[in-house]
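INPUT
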Amino acid sequence: MLDRHAVGDLPPKHHIAFRGPDGSLRFEQCLTREGFDGPYTILYHVGKPHTARTVGLAEGWELPVDAGGLRPLQRRHYLSTQVKRGGSPLRARVPMLFNTDVVLSTMTPDAPDTTYVMNGDADELFFIFKGSGLLRTMMGDLRFTRNDYVFVPKGIPYRFVPDEGVAQHWLAMELLGGLHLPRQWRNEVGQLRMDAPFCHRDFTRPTFAGPVDEGIRDVIVKRDGAFHHQVHDHSPLDAVGWDGTVYPWIFPILNFQPRAGLVHLPPTWHGTFAGRGALVCSFVPRVVDFHPDAIPCPYPHASVDCDEFIFYCDGNFTSRKGVGPGSISYHPMGVPHGPHPGSYERSIGTTRTDELAVMLDTFQPLRVTAAALAVEDGDYHESFIG
Ligand SMILES: [Fe+2]
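OUTPUT
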């Protein structure tokens, strides 16, 4: 959750009578986290937000299923560019790796959502590897483009409208225990600290223009791994204003302020977002370490409590060869990992890296789906030996 934001028409105090120009009462909706103890947003609707009818179960995106079988413990490389699933964003997701905290999917949508979608299980973080479009939500619109993180908190109706004729390839991250900015970057009043790797202005908040009626009454709600079809008798996007800290936003990855040290800094310095059992890191172009004998390439390491997932976006990744844009590397705990042969030595004396990648460290082991197995580079593990 970000800073407090207020848009549209609001009464001077919460929980008091608030009427429209015709005298009709507005309906308050308090969207609260952690019961009533956490961040919250209060919206004011023209219609009642709690009167949707349940139609029944619905279809949504593919849910993750373990591919089964016991495979050798080794470093893995999956070619996500070979995974094609078109259609609306609601249907386009293909889970690749998952555990009880995160589901990591690739998606190549080529049509807009025709209903609203609401995730009742997870906060969602999308990374736009390729493409552009519009995210329309109950709290306003957000235009997104390549290299944007797009955040949608759980419980908010939304739909995606990918730009027509533009190739789309997104990484979708469901965070089942929620997502937040790392707490060490807040001061005592919740403001982002002066030494944080981002500032409030780096985030784009929704553009709100009052109630929206697109003629859509249907909402597909995901809850406990199932999809439910609900129908409203009015547009669910009928808020006249809202006020709070829970709302969707966009953070362009290139707004992340990277760090360099005298010697190599660990991935925690690239930590951008945190969730239960997960840390999302952004590797962006930067100058590298400046000790005369520094080895800028990451050292071989055994991070024994984490599985490591990296989605490669652009540039030449310092420590790896054979991976390219759209590659996913998966280095499980229990297997020390490090640079490819020659990378360690070659990095000495370099001054910059142009790598762009999104990494997740997860604290529970990830499981793999059949879709990932189908696009695995079987030579990857051995490619480190030499
Ligand atoms: Fe690593």
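end of record. The first strand starts at residue 5 and ends at 8.
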